Amino acid sequence: MTERDELISAYLDGDATAVERARVEADPSMLAEVERFREVSEQVSTGGDLGVADPFTRRRHLGAALAAFDDLQASSAGDADIDLRAGAGPLSGGTAPSSTASAAVPDVVAMARPDRRRRPLGALAAAAAGVVLLVGVAIPLTGGDDDAADLATASMEDAADDAARSFDSDSADDAGDAASMAEESMDVAEEAMEEEAMEEMAVEESDTADEESMDDTEGDQAAETASDDTGEADTGLAPQDESDIPVLVDVDRPELLLEEMVARWENGIEPIAPVCALIEDRVTLHVAPGTSPDGLIDHEIHLLADDEAGTGFEAMVFTLPECSPT
Amino acid sequence: MLERHYDRISARCRRIAGNVADGDDATQEALLAIVRGLDRFDGRSAFSTWAYRVATNACLDELRRRGRRPVPTEDEIEPAGPTGSHDQLGDDVAQRDQVMSALATLTPEFRAPLVLRDLEGLDYAEIADTLGLAPGTVRSRIARARRQLAERLGNQEPPS
Prior knowledge:
The structure holds two protein chains of two kinds. By secondary structure, chain A is mainly α. Chain A has two domains: about 5-45, no CATH class; about 80-325, no CATH class. Helix content of chain A is about 50%, strand content about 10%. Chain A has eleven helices and seven strands. In chain A, the strands form three sheets. Chain A has a three-stranded antiparallel beta sheet with strand order 1-7-6, covered by helices on one side. In chain A, a hairpin with a 3-residue loop joins strand 4 (about 275-280) and strand 5 (about 285). Chain A is globular and about 80 Å long. By secondary structure, chain B is mainly α. Chain B has two domains: about 1-70, RNA polymerase sigma factor, region 2, helix turn helix motif (Rna Polymerase Sigma Factor, Chain: A, Orthogonal Bundle), CATH 1.10.1740; about 85-160, Winged helix-like DNA-binding domain superfamily/Winged helix DNA-binding domain (Arc Repressor Mutant, subunit A, Orthogonal Bundle), CATH 1.10.10. Chain B has seven helices and no strands. Chain B has helices spanning about 1-15, 20-35, 45-65, 90-105, 110-120, 125-130, 135-150. The interface between A and B is large, with 58 and 58 residues.
């Protein structure tokens, strides 16, 4: 192994400096070796792939990983309700939400959106139709104005109910049953989201739900009232246009905030800025003004575009200790 | 989430391991490492970047732990040459076997950066980040790996 090989290899990979390139190109023997290395590289790229594990092995691996995850979860008493399974939300663990008990809010909430074309809030609003105890939090969270929060919650529930009613009859029936069984409702909604036949309808209904939600002046007034009344986390920015419409968050489902954020970004609307949401004193979401999904790397909401897989966004929420409730 | 990234992790572990059996075992260890390391994910990089980094290093750790890698003797690796008696499919299979055998002679420390470069198309900086190495080390290891492969695949170093 010589420095010469490093030079040749780096030249082949486009990692050589201008001086190094000139040196290689001035030496015919080095150029000949570049071609040899290129052959090796091509042989590796065409003959070095071993494929991926078969479906059985895949299931076994994933099952073991999730079992390990469950073990970890069980061993940390009172810890977050984290679910790695795609599309699964905190409700999937079988625990009914409670508006009064301290929510099992995860430090990390991970989820995958199966298709970025969807307007997720609407679809999730439909799924949330069966959630009886829904607590709304107006974002930007500017304080604890209960009346305002109640108004906002009511508007969210209305939007969710409307969306659920406009699903097809089977799904609507299931969603109705889910009024007393929130988990079932989530399952039905997830199944519906996976069915291609339902996809377009979900998009349409999502649009409707979003529009209804955004058009809900009651909710707007609630948020503005909350902001005006308390002045906490004052952004110093006057509410303006659609971006100032509050996001309503079920304290048991903080990922809804992310769904709404994604929907807004997809529609070219910047998130409320700055946003600081405190959910049950545990989860804080923070988005800087004008932040784009790609610029969120250093923030507490991470949106990971996965264009290659075509599966939309992953979103993760992280606790932000310095933004604890006051 | 794990399911979404599974195929890439599986493919990478197999490539790094150099064989299916070790690669699949390493994949399992990689997934477990991701699960167990979730609380250490600080969000400074994209989750996928972090997960692949953890997976890659878990694969390497598993291979080191096993301490068994196929090391064919020189006699077992025939230099690539004309195979006029074979049809194209036979040629492809034979070439693939030769490449895999030659790759298997590399230690994981040399094989990993090479497959990340030539099979996954990562640049030196990305490889360095993934493996926790200095870029210069990546450059050196890839060059050494290619030299060894060139010799084992019959691409002899020309007289200088």
